[in-house]
Design goal:
16 strands, Collagenase (Catalytic Domain), globular, Immunoglobulin-like, 25% strand, disordered N terminus, 3 domains, alpha+beta, 468 residues
């Protein structure tokens, strides 16, 4: 049954098959917790500890994370000996929210989760936060796997699991779970078509194309009562199963969900390391957070670009390289070297983090048509704000984006160092002081391709989760 592609299968037969195939794998344990605070204070508290329906899908030979990625990092340590059993870096919605203006004035609480192979003996969970480039311990809690209050109940079923691509045992592959939100039961077929469509889009882009056989792709779509998701800026509110919404952090195109508990419960019916959420809507939008999830509005004309761009954030922690668009984040108070693999503050030009890809005779920093580009982008952003303010048709925005992409590709292809890796000023939402590896990349504009540095960063993560 698992070797059949493009076939819907029931969850419990899949559970049985996976249990047989991975009989030696431990259970999957999940710590759900609350993350509360503001821009200067944060507090953690345990919500619940659960055992998910499926066994651990990861490679037990690759339990430790040495990538140094993410705003946060957690460790699972044997309580008696202190031995490190599991670790992962990640980022969070809270981690982004605390960089907004709102976080300076109010406190909020977010639900978050840590997933790991269920231990056999008591463990200590250590959570760390990155401060000025280094991780520092901020919270610990202990778990006894024999504790009677650990929840082993089955959460509500999201419905049948779709097997989109099965390349092998989950423990030897990167397991990507595509989830649908805002699809009614009658729109189940549309979700399946959309999920297959975006799978094919992903594997047309390098380096995913070259590593297609390293991936399994699954699909889940809990049925919604109403079609579509919330868009508060237009007065639209929906109680969709995964809780996704436009206007996150009051940014109209940013789609995230505050409903982490529901997301994790539904997702637990598939093996996964990464989650892509397709929202049933046509308005341009999406989002992506490292090691959390990515989102995209499935019916937007620009969905293929948004899907790949946001998945780059999610899978490899890639930074946004653009800096002329409106964002909710406040600029950093102190310039430090970004942890993201494709951005640098160039504090030490002689030790540029991707210096091995810079060919001789390429200057660092690297010149490009920056002033001309910025003038063009500021004009386009003004037109974009006018279209939104007047609530004009989405087709007008799509037309503007097409014009923008044509101008960008033409301008950025004609410089002396357009095809070279260097250090081009303008990245990470900042016009000055932060640099990107190449003049153009899908993380900078609506370009088709990842640059050489981004491709390498993605391949490093693929290697971390797959094995032959």
């Amino acid at each position: 049954m698992l070797t059949m592609r493009y076939k819907s299968v029931l969850v419990f037969p899949l559970l049985f098959c996976l249990s047989l195939a991975a009989f030696a794998a431990p259970a999957t344990m999940r710590l759900d917790y609350f993350h509360t605070g503001d821009a200067t204070h944060e507090l953690f508290s345990v919500d619940r500890i659960v055992i998910e329906p499926l066994p651990w899908a990861g490679d037990m030979a690759k339990t430790l994370d040495d990538t140094n990625l993410g705003n946060y990092f957690f460790e699972v340590r044997d309580q008696a000996s202190g031995r490190l059993l599991y670790s992962r870096g990640f980022s969070s919605v809270y981690g982004e929210w605390i960089t907004t203006e709102e976080a300076k004035n109010v406190s909020r609480t977010f639900s978050e989760s840590l997933r790991f192979p269920a231990p056999e003996a008591p463990v200590k969970i250590v959570l760390k936060r990155r401060d000025e480039g280094q991780f520092h311990e901020i919270w610990t809690t202990r778990i006894d796997p024999k504790e009677k209050f650990i929840d082993t109940s089955r959460p509500p079923s999201p419905g049948p699991l779709l097997t989109i691509q099965n390349s092998g045992e989950p423990s030897t592959k990167v397991d990507l779970l595509i989830m649908g939100d805002g699809y009614t039961a009658a729109e189940r077929a549309k979700f399946e078509t959309d999920a297959r469509h975006f799978t094919e889009i992903l594997f047309t882009r390098s380096p995913f194309r070259e590593h297609r056989s390293d991936f399994n792709v699954w699909g889940l779509c809990p049925p919604a009562e109403e079609s579509g998701i919330s868009r508060p800026s237009n007065g639209i509110h929906r109680r969709s199963p995964l809780g996704t919404t436009y206007d996150t952090f009051d940014t109209e195109r940013y789609i995230l969900t505050p409903e982490n508990r529901a997301l994790r419960d539904y997702a637990s019916y598939a093996p996964y390391e990464f989650i892509e959420i397709l929202v049933n809507g046509e308005t341009y939008g999406g989002g992506g957070i490292f090691n959390l999830y990515a989102t995209v509005a499935a019916d937007s004309e620009w969905a293929p670009y948004v899907f790949v761009h946001e998945f780059g954030h999610h899978i490899a922690g890639l930074a946004d390289e653009y800096y002329t668009s409106q964002v909710a984040y406040l600029p950093p108070s102190k310039k430090i070297e970004p942890w993201e693999p494709n951005a640098t503050a160039l504090l030490d030009p002689a030790n540029l983090k991707w210096k091995d890809l810079v060919v001789a005779a390429t200057p660092v920093p690297t010149s490009w048509r920056k002033a001309e580009f910025e003038a063009m982008e500021h004009e386009i952003q003004a037109q974009r704000r006018e279209i939104r303010a007047q609530k004009r048709p989405e087709s007008e925005m799509d037309k503007l984006f097409k014009e923008e992409r044509q101008k960008e590709d033409t301008m950025l292809a004609g410089d002396k160092y357009s095809d070279k890796v260097g250090a081009f000023e303008g990245a990470d939402y900042e016009a000055h002081g932060y640099y990107r590896p190449q003049e153009n990349c899908i993380m900078f504009t609506r370009h088709d391709s990842f640059c050489a540095v981004c491709r390498r960063a993605i391949e490093r993560i693929i290697e971390m989760y797959s094995s032959q």
